[in-house]
Amino acid sequence: MELGLAGRRVLVTGAGKGIGRGTVQALHAAGARVVAVSRTRADLDSLVREPFLEVTKEACDTSFDVNLRAVIQVSQIVARGMIARGAPGAIVNVSSQASHRALTNHSVYCSTKGALDMLTKVMALELGPHKIRVNAVNPTVVMTPMGQANWSNPHKAKPLLDRIPLGKFAEVEHVVDAILFLLSDRSGMTTGSTLPVDGGFLAT
């Protein structure tokens, strides 16, 4: 299926591994010009997961830096460039199913991803007049190296898998395909949306 990405300039952040690396490879294959690949603190192999009563200021600051502030700063650079060139475009934020569902010991993570979803909507509202679409993908656990390290234990994984109708976690290509769709002309009337890539987790 032709996605209309050939020749487009694309910025991918956090492209060192996992979803970012897969997105870069798929964009190259679609003929896009990946003009900047920026590593962010999201490349760290750890996320802040603490019980609510043990959440620290440092944990809050780290999560907000990675999941919200970095997105704002990079998206401002990208959007200003599009507006200066008078070029339409699309931005896709990588959120999580945790923005819609409370998860034990994930109070800060859930909160920052919820904030990212609302940021996505506000960006769509303000950038729409400039012909810039903004959407988010909301994956379940993704089998990146970090996902494999954290969720390969069947006893740990079973309670979550039991809540996913398809009975499996996402692979990197599932998320990459959703991102490519939202970047492409095939989603030309879609903006301000959050797209679950969760095997039906949010339907349960």
Would you spell out the secondary-structure blueprint of this structure?
Blueprint: E1 9-13, H1 18-29, E2 33-38, H2 57-85, E3 89-94, H3 107-127, E4 132-139, H4 145-151, H5 154-161, H6 172-183, E5 194-197
Parallel strand pairs: 1-2, 3-4, 4-5
Helix pairs in contact: 1-6, 2-3
Q: Kindly report the oligomeric state of this protein.
A: single chain
How can the largest sheet be summarized? 3 strands, parallel
Shape: globular
CATH class: Alpha Beta
Per DSSP E runs of 2 or more residues, the count of β-strands stands at 5
The name CATH uses for the topology is Rossmann fold
Number of domains: 1
Give the H and E element order.
Answer: EHEHEHEHHHE
According to CATH, the homologous superfamily is NAD(P)-binding Rossmann-like Domain
Q: Please tell me the CATH architecture by its name.
A: 3-Layer(aba) Sandwich
Uncertain residue segments: 35-46
Structural class: alpha/beta
Q: Separation of termini?
A: 31 Å
User: How much of the sequence is in beta strands?
Assistant: 5-15%
Q: Portion of residues in helices?
A: 40-55%
Number of helices: 6
Quick structural gist:
The protein is of the alpha/beta class and 204 residues long. It has one domain: Rossmann fold (3-Layer(aba) Sandwich), CATH 3.40.50.720. Helix content is 44%, strand content 14%.
